[in-house]
Amino acid sequence: MILTLLSAQMADADELNEFFVDKQDTSQTDTVPELRAVYRFDQANNKVGSIKNISLITAHSLPQLIKGELPGVYVSESNGEPGTSQQMFVRGLNKPIFTNRDIYSTQPLIVLDGVPQIGEHPFSFDIQNYDVERIGPENNLLTTFDIDNIESIVVHKDLATLAKYGPLGVNGVIEITSKKSLGPDKKRISVNSYGGFSARPAVTTINGSYENAFRKQFYDLFTTNGRYNEDDVYPIYLSDSLNNNYFGPSNWSDSYYHNGYNYGANATVAGGGNRSNFQFNLGTIQNGGTAEDTEFDKLNARFYLNLRPFNWLVFETLVNVNRLNRDRNKNLRNRYAMMGYFPDLGAPISPNKEVYDKYLDEFDKSFDNNFNNLLGGFFGLQFNVDRLRFKTKFGIDYNEGYRDLFYPSTILESNNFASNYYGYNQRILIDNTLVYDFENDANYFYFEAGNSFTWDVFKYNYAYAFKGVNDYIKINLLGGDQNSSVFPKQLIYKFLDRTRHNMISVYGKGSYTYDNTYTASLMLRYDGSSNAQPTARWFFSPTLSLGWNAKNSLMADNEQISQFNFRASVGRLGIYNMYDNYSQGPSYTAQIGYTGNMIVPSYNAFAALVRPYEVGWVGYDIPWSYMDEVNIGMDLGLQQNKLQFSLDAYVRDTKDQLVMLPGKRDFGYKYQYESGLDVRNMGVDLGISGDIINKSQLSWNSGIILGFNTNKILALPNGLDEVAVDNRLLKVGERVDAFWLLENQGIYLTDNDVPQQSGQLLTYRAIDLKAGDPIWKDQNGDFNIDDEDRIVKGNIIPKVSGSWNNSLRYNNFDLNLNFYFNLGRSIMNQEMSNRFNFIENENAREIDAIKEITYWEKRGDYSKYPLYNPWSSVSPYQVNQSLFLENGSFVKLRTVSLGYNMKDVLSSKYSKKMDLYVYLSANNLLTLSPYSGRDPELVNYLGYDLGYSLPLPKTFALGFKLNL
Fold it and tell me: Of 139, 557, 767, 842, which sits most exposed with the smallest number of CB within 10 A?
């Protein structure tokens, strides 16, 4: 927890800010008793330093904007496709990540103007064959914030400030406050706009000749006549060197890659008087991708109104509306994963531009309408009676997503495909807060009580079908029985689901401050969740925070030290379950699928039930999971805060978490959920900033933000020391995000090099090792390489992340440079594993064996890898070995911007209030990394670089910011 003790000159405490609805709106003649400014309960550098500077990044999502800007916040941007999602992790990873659905329960809460935002629910993964991306539009819902209308972005990481959000905020809270009015009788008209482009990447293309030369070295080593055995069949597409489709010019990149054009524009009108003020915003953004004609578009409108009819009554309301639209990629992997259907994969797409263009022309017969509508806002009332404040707020956040899709038979082996998706997520909130404070000489008391009611609803309808009568009838499958005449009834699949979560919270808080120097605060809260089991609906959470203003206490007269504070806090917060089935005891998921389409609930419209159930046993008496955290920190400011230093150290234990383990097979289940997983995160959040040069015409400010984090498993359910789940090993004392790998030690050059014991050769899963096989270390000495010999190694989440920011000003010119870095991070280079494992992957109907058009692109460093025998039965190029584990650390020159403020020029000719700022910005310019792949950021949630993501582009923009 963090309890920051700042001097009385600092900004008001967060909990008090909520009760000052733009204090400048107060009538100049009426008097409202004001709560006194007290100490803040958060770290000094938990706020984005310069909203203006991050707005020059011309990014379109919240994670992109704050990447590297907040200590302890790690952002994973694994795809350069515009409008796709990024993940955020606050103070590390508190649970193992096995599938995409686990990501959703690790994300921080986003709060916009006091309203907790709702996101997508992962329950639709239950009906998906492959864990690639969620069905539906899958647009990034964190793109709805207009950075030019944001006043501040603050991260709450510790329980001292986190506790007021309850279980919703257990993974951290990112609080966004929009700009409001400027004050009585003031108005503002602002226009902000930019235009630019995302630069097409430079790539090296290859063709069949290059691939043949690559494979020839293996044939030369391990075959005598060009065939390893009678079953070995060389791919047809590589067999004829006269085939111009594969051995001709490899110029496909001219049709695949291109420059993407970007622009953004927004306008704001704000004004008002002593009793009321308003603000109205309109904006639009287009973000063009650099491949496959991808594009993301956003339209947004916002209206804010504040009224103070009496000195004791305040009314405010806000409405925020957004429309998101995305032109998605055309890659094979995402398409086949969504369809659950694999056509013939014997030959990849031709690298010849003429042939590739004909393939792309077939998409003109298809459509993919992919969009979201979002509505959010609140209205609130505040009553002021002397020192007593009562505030009530009604908030809503609603988003709905649509995806209507059709693929013609010409790209699916004469088998067309249609699907329709509609889903929505809705949160309704009622929040009531009562505050009373009083002061007696050097003693200041603050009391707060509140309760909140939250109702969440998630729903989707989804249908897909194959083999329509022709490519001209493209209907909505979510309709009635008329679909049967277009698609065979046996090949129409419909799904729907709806889940709810309700939460009631009550809390009380008391704070005491003595002589502006010592502060103590205690919060007690009680939370009830409908997703908890009936025997454990409620959870009690206490939080204690302490602070000491050493500046006031010991060095009040020291002019060199402007701020010196210490803080400490300890507490507990409950973790609610996202899934309602945890509250219901044992349940099942019925599947009668087949290879290639495992999720089928019925046959010919008749329900069916088979065992084993894939997901099921929950059991009874499952308690709340919860988080315990201890935090200590300090803030130091020198020479009127020209140099600032802020440090926080924390230990966070997340306990009694559910984890899916093998079991309950006698009841027909494959897995069971058990509580008892404990994970510890420890770390340090550090911020340093200062003015290196501070003169009237020249200034240079530099700041560094660092987040150090490490984790380990403290306990497993049922007292287990270790348990294997999928391709991960959870082991007490080891990291929760570690890989589980065989350890490589070289290659057996001859059969005689293979160790023997009593005439028995060393084996891999009872298969004799031979020349050309890897040397995998026999960790347990049993002369058989298997899972018992795999080691826990590496980590997905970086041990250190942060940024180095520099801002230089000369007269009206300014130059900003931002460096972003991740250190102590590992990557599994699965793209290279797939490239070398060509024997097993050829013709394999596996999702990770699909060859995109980018298969004909030279990537990676082939010289790093030994030439194993690819025909060996031991799968020598399997990905989960230390051979493909690489150092994923990197430093990026993320942003360079050059700007000029023309206010002096314009004020002399037009109006003193006119302010025009013009700028040039460039992003993602340089990457320094030992990683041999394309980009160390293009890594999925499991830490694997699959090679399918679109690149993160270099972007360039010219823009202006005009205020009237």
Answer: 557
